[in-house]
Fold these 4 entries.
Entry 1:
Amino acid sequence: MDTEALTRVAVAALEDIKGKEITVLDVRPLTSLFDTLVIASGDSTRQVKALADHVEEKLKEAGAAIIGTEGERAAEWILVDAGDVVIHVMHPAARSHYNLEELWGAVARERAAA
């Protein structure tokens, strides 16, 4: 399954159960570890867990291999690693604190300036 298809499945799964502020970042120019970051928020730790579980389930149904997941216990920030696509499902407080969009944007700006 290609990166675009994986991304579509992940985003659709997040939308299915009301993921919020879904952001897709193409990070191919920045790293060779993966191609795309998908970041979404859930209103509560219960919803964060449900979103991550649903994404993992839908990706598996589509034939994707899940390399691993992290953060299920606390459910403030759960990472689902599907190889070329990495999905971060975050509680709004964690998302605001870590601000991944700005972090990856700052890397892009630094590389552009170099």
Entry 2:
Amino acid sequence: MILAQATVVADSLAKSKIAENSKIFLEIDPWGIGMTFVGMAVVFLSLLLLYMLFYNITRALNYRIKLAQKKKGKTVETREVETELSGEVNAAISIALHLYMNEMHDRESAILTISKVARTYSPWSSKIYGLRQYPR
């Protein structure tokens, strides 16, 4: 009983505190422009942090691999990766992908065969059951 009364009192105090804080915030920022800028700043900063994380994660993983190999006494190979591909290489890759994707489809003939059904009457094709029946 006492616990239930305590939760009711705490709940009412929390609601009154929320109402008081909302009135103060309404006096400070009546149109919500400040809240808009704060929200947009949080979103864009989180997107920037995620971009930096995804951009640098391969470097961090490669650095850990190099450290592990140095501890084992193995030689670490550093290779230069060509980041820019020439136009001829890009054209060759795109043509190869185009030809590969076109070969994935089956070649089908355009010959259609229509065979006559032995039973000519079917309720599916009956004009009696049509939706538009005009009374005469």
Entry 3:
Amino acid sequence: MGIKSSSWVSKSGWLLLKELKSEFRTRYALNAILMFALTTLTVVSFSLGLLSLNPQLQSALFWLVIFFSSISGLAQVFVKEEESKTVNILKLIAAPSTVFLGKFLFNMILLLLLEILIVPLFIILMNLRILNPWLFFPMLFLGSLGLVCATTLIAAIISKAHIKGALFAVLSFPILLPLLITAIDGTRLSLQGEAFSAGWDNLRLLISYAVVMFVASILLFDFVWNE
């Protein structure tokens, strides 16, 4: 049992390392999400000018930028396997759960790299004041975790489709809508300086969403991967 677990972890780690090496060599997904995020932020900032937005609008814009930026890059995690014809090789050397975990970890790292850039820029350009960072950053992390859990499975589903970009957005939005609503509301509370306890219900919902989506993705991925 211990040997199987070790093999599962090592193969997932190997797949993650392969994805990182491939991405930093081509920078395809990273460049896509960074350019989309920077363009969106710049356009929104200049459009609003000196207008002062309330925390509700700021939190909504914040999560919309993350959502639309992420779907421009996270979908590529399986698409490039189809384009490079390496899908069958992966099926031979790794179990479906191993493949999903490796791809999931890669997407999580990619999204966190995006947020390292986006959050400071959003604070500067949108004059964002985070009055309760102890609520803001857990909300950001859990929202990102749930987003990656859902989009990794959806990326596998649409990888064989002809119109990948449009289909990814269409499938992602209804699944991610509960997460976005919860994350926007929780982020609003952190911007208003509410106590951590005020956002606890939102945090619990995000934790539940991430757990349900991760378990569902693991269970469904075997069928999706071998279809």
Entry 4:
Amino acid sequence: MNEEIELVLDEARDRMQKALEHLEHELARLRAGKATPALLDGITVDYYGVNSPLNQVSNIHTPDARTILIQPWEKSMLGVIEKAILAANIGLTPINNGEVIRINVPPLTEERRHQLVKQVKNEGETAKISIRNSRKWANDELKKLLKEGLPEDLEKIAEEDVQEMTDDFTAKVDKVITLKEKDILTV
């Protein structure tokens, strides 16, 4: 196949893959009733004047399914970390015992579970829109190549490849959404 077509297909595949990875990252931050260090992703603390991610100033682990344990590398950071978690407004309350910060993750109510499922579906739809935008971009690029002298049959084959790729990534998004919904609805 034509080298320019390969470049367009590779770029479209990369864009679609990024949309899928972004979805997975966003869903990892949703609380499904289980304690995971990913719940604290995106929280930064002031570490000697530099905003640093929480996982770069402490060890974060989960001793059981309902507890997150944060052990700062310096005890002086306990108060700063506690304030950062409260300021992040993630719906979890840190407990500072002077050594470590413990966060108890409460079980989800039925109503909250259904809200989270709606949120998962919205994130999934956003990912699908991004994938369709990548398809549109690739098809537009193929049309430009057609105007520049690309044979029409090659352009049609490439469009079919783009559509196959779109269907494949859409199916992957559906699979990720289904798994997350099952995870949330499992009591």
